[in-house]
Fold this sequence. Notes:
The chain is α/β, with parallel strands linked by helices.
Amino acid sequence: MTEPLDSPLAGKHIVLGVTGSIAAYKSADLVRRLRDAGAELRVVMTKSACEFITPLTLQTLSGHPVAIDLLDADQESAMGHITLARWADWILVAPASADVIARLAQGRTDDLLSALCLASESPLALAPAMNNKMWSNPATQDNLTVLRSRGVQIIGPASGDQACGEQGEGRLVEPLNIVVAMERYVVPKRLLGKKVLITAGPTYEAIDPVRFIGNRSSGKMGFAIAQAAVEAGAEVTLIAGPVHLTTPTGVKRVDVETAQAMFEQVSSAVAESDIFISCAAVADYRPCQTETKKIKKIANSELELKLEPTIDIVAAVAKQQLKPFIVGFAAETQDVTEYAQEKLQRKNLDMIAANQVGNGLGFAVDTNTLSVFWHNGSQELPIAVKTQLARDLMMLIIEQYNAKNSIKTA
């Protein structure tokens, strides 16, 4: 089958999980539409799903054997749950029953599908299907809140007539609309062969061996961008300040502490980079002098610190004659648009992503919004978990990077 180049799903490895719901019959159409979009599919069914649609049907449509049993020796020796977990670019559970949603929220592994989801670092999307009262039950909604907080995408449900004869929310979203949703979530592999350099997190500027000047950046956005760049097929180097985050699979990570150390690492890697994304919250100032011993508190006395500016890393990269495509970040407490556009022009960046911080916004939270600007355009990215926001931003970066390079080669 020829892959449609205009679909972000082209060439993506998707594991489709089918659970016990009357809506399971729609999974046959979903398999066909995902394959039409160019995705490579493997299907995993729960035993209850087999009561509604046969594995043979989905095997025929997907072109591959359907996996069902967690402890099946033949399946485990061929493409077991660990192999599938590593193979998947995405896991899509459609339909997702209330029972499976509960098990995923609890981290249980009592069947192949739930074990696969727990063993995988791949992003997960669920398309719920259940009775409207089950959907609105606080237990189900609490489980969904937990899953959303972990970055799980929830597609639907739709509202209307249900198999039980009732009406309300709980219907499976139509297969074509599920594919449309997945195309938004997935970053196409349009950065194959490209090198992306990213900075993330805060920097710490030492006052003495105990104290430092720092900020509230958690690094979550920068790490999410690194993951999105890997999903796009790029070779990614992530220069991280002091954070407590797991390195995304496939990313080369370099840990630093100070602005000077981050600048040195960026300087050594940027010449080979096609795209530089400066997401780190680098300290603007550092103490002029760092004490070698802990400063002792003296009663009723003041302590004065003399500060000097740190090097502006993104501005320094932008001044290079042969420079990569440069994306800056602006975290502001007020006048976000004005400050971001001024910074874009003053530092000669290609793009800038701006967001408001403070009072519970931006730093150390799982969601965010971004206002993205470039020299002849802008776009607002609405509130989303940072993993999805990073994918949306990566799509814009890819578009503008390709547009700039097409102009150069025209």
